[in-house]
């Protein structure tokens, strides 16, 4: 059974549609867009038409929500074409799931219908210049007064922030709270006076979409802008959202790894040395075998975590394992793809060098792999080991 066989016929059709979009419309233009670091306006437009920004929004709000395994496989397809496209919908989907799960009725009605079409795009602003791993130590403060919230602070590395109309901002509404997480909230921020997207950060890969510094200087938000309407719940809300985010990053790693394997497999059959295709040299054949084996294992682990999430279970450990394993696997696969391509693996006229630059983001983003190991170890102890 192919991997798609686990999905309903309708969801299989959606994944195949995205696969065709990638092969016909993304692959032919990606190298040029990536090397010129051009925002993929037309491709994002097509993603809106395909309903990709509404994948986490239910029909009653105008979206077409899909199961978590389907979401993972769609993300893999997009990342196979260009990781940046999967990134452009990643934070957006997490914010949609946060709104659905925790938002007030008014917040859902305000944002979800326009998020479903991509008219409103959303991003998450967690990381600060002082650090991204220790989120309880954030310094951005939203103080309440008679006019609502007054926000001051700075965030960094916020992807899609220039083009997102909605920023789910992690901030302190009670900086003196103890423990610190009780003073953290998610504020639904829209662009306005005092909110400045100040600088596009230069990056190794993940080109085309912007990752920026964002500052809040006496930025004003209305009193009803706290996600769910109650202060102090933001840390737990974001941790839940990151379960989806980490599955998304795992799926992005699968896509980059698969692209690298596909290119390497094709090249190893075309390229000859010592009178035979290079795949027939045992070293190269072994690379291919290892790449395919580890990619298959990473996909199964990711789909396992996705199925657990779909069943409504807590999946911080499972999503952490998927993200950890899939991203480390992708790193190894892209390195082997460079090796298999010989000198051309180092050429900017081949796509493998892009995979090699894109893969490291997945070991860092949405919580570094060191942090995933902390989460997994803590859960192993708490749950009394693996549930077999
Ligand atoms: C291209 C890109 C896009 C991004 N997009 C976004 C975005 O849209 N929104 C957003 O909020 N953030 C975003 N980030 C930020 C990203 O989530 C952070 O970079 C990441 O969480 C790590 O934070 P840091 O860079 O501050 O590293 P630090 O927290 O300073 O960590 C530095 C090193 O110390 C290790 N370390 C820290 N604490 C521990 C610990 N307790 N145990 C073991 N090791 C530890 C880390 O694993 C890492 O190796 C993006 C980053 C990049 C590069």
Automatic annotation (TrEMBL):
PROSITE patterns associated with the record: ACYL_COA_DH_1
SUPFAM superfamilies, alphabetized: Acyl-CoA dehydrogenase C-terminal domain-like, Acyl-CoA dehydrogenase NM domain-like
Alphabetized Gene3D superfamilies for the sequence: Acyl-CoA dehydrogenase/oxidase, N-terminal domain, Butyryl-CoA Dehydrogenase, subunit A, domain 2, Butyryl-CoA Dehydrogenase, subunit A, domain 3
Xref: Pfam families: Acyl-CoA_dh_1, Acyl-CoA_dh_M, Acyl-CoA_dh_N
Domain Acyl-CoA dehydrogenase/oxidase N-terminal residue range list: 9-119
InterPro entries membership: Acyl-CoA_DH_CS, Acyl-CoA_Oxase/DH_mid-dom, Acyl-CoA_Oxase/DH_mid-dom_sf, AcylCo_DH-like_C, AcylCo_DH/oxidase_C, AcylCoA_DH/ox_N, AcylCoA_DH/ox_N_sf, AcylCoA_DH/oxidase_NM_dom_sf
GO molecular function, one term: acyl-CoA dehydrogenase activity
The Acyl-CoA oxidase/dehydrogenase middle domain, residue ranges: 124-218
Cofactor(s) required for function per UniProt: FAD
Annotated Acyl-CoA dehydrogenase/oxidase C-terminal domain residues: 232-380
Keyword annotations: FAD, Flavoprotein, Oxidoreductase
Domain of life: Bacteria
Family: Belongs to the acyl-CoA dehydrogenase family.
Protein name (record): Isovaleryl-CoA dehydrogenase
